[in-house]
Amino acid sequence: MKIEFAPRSIPLERRLQTASVVQWVFSFMGLGLCCIAVFVGLLFTRFWILSVLYSAWWVYDWDTPNKGGRKIKWIRNSVIWRYMRDYFPVTLVKTADLDPTQNYLFGFHPHGVLVAGAFINFCTEATEFSKIFPGLSPHLMMLGLFFRAPFFRDYIMSGGLVTSDKESAYYILRKPGGGNILTIAVGGAQEALDARPGAYKLLLANRKGFVRLALQHGIRLVPVFSFGENELFDQVENPKGSWLRCIQDFLQKYMGISLPLFHARGIFQYSFGLLPYRRPICTVVGKPIHVEKKPNASEEEVDKLHQVYMEELSKLFEDHKLKYNVPEEQHLTFI
């Protein structure tokens, strides 16, 4: 394989963009393990008291990821995220105004490999979410396993990440006065196994938990489609039934995480590596779907709202796909 190296004359701006994405990929893939290693390692040094004090704080703060997290404004506004935004670049598009006195449930599609669009748009202010949707505070759900890593849990909460369980969802959606958005990457880790350029299959046909959640609380559903999300990485072929897919499905079923073997480009060359390609992401937020509160909704009522949601998501995709270089003959497939 011929390696295409990056030219030496790259402007500083682009180098900073690449550096911001390097730290993000590292944070997603390895920072949690590093934090665990530091926490344990400190116990065997003269600085052991730091781990002990943090343990006391950890016990006291244990439920915070399930109770809306703890955003830190200056981290969400960091210049690092603006460089990361410009690397792709990432844009956020609004198709309808949202009432800041209401709470909303965003369904984010597709999951992609690393959910880059959801992170930049809803966990940072790089795309000026607060100006586009004034009065609304976004929260993005993430696998609870990540919140069991010391130090790392505090870092990810600072952007607005919360645990992906019912308790966490209930806390946000029940907040009086409105102004809260709960974002769920509906396809989850399982959908990530099929994320590759040109893929428009969404794991949605039997994903109805978020619809039932909306009915229980009378929360408006908002479909969100992130164009370009699946274009960021290539992935090792893993057709259903292959030994690789069987291992990945096993890990996803019993551990809650999937391990897509993805690749794209490197830091100093463009031929291979774990950094995403520089391809644009445009996250389009659709119109809210009115949901009548039904705490004990029947399966028929859940199915009816689920069908409405899929139709609205398909319409959102069809209305915008030509703007973002999706072939006219391409349509969403729900599996």
UniProtKB/TrEMBL annotation:
Root EC class: transferase
Keywords of the record: Acyltransferase, Endoplasmic reticulum, Lipid biosynthesis, Lipid metabolism, Membrane, Transferase, Transmembrane, Transmembrane helix
Any single Gene Ontology cellular-component annotation: endoplasmic reticulum membrane
Domain of life of the native organism: Eukaryota
GO function terms (MF aspect): 2-acylglycerol O-acyltransferase activity; diacylglycerol O-acyltransferase activity
Membrane topology note: Multi-pass membrane protein
One of the Pfam families matching this protein, by short name: DAGAT
Main location: endoplasmic reticulum
Enzyme Commission numbers on file: 2.3.1.-
Parts of the chain that traverse the membrane: 21-44
Entry annotated with the keyword Acyltransferase: yes
Subcellular localization, as worded in the UniProt entry: Endoplasmic reticulum membrane
Gene Ontology biological process terms in this record: diacylglycerol biosynthetic process; triglyceride biosynthetic process
Sequence similarity: Belongs to the diacylglycerol acyltransferase family.
Protein name (Swiss-Prot/TrEMBL): Acyltransferase
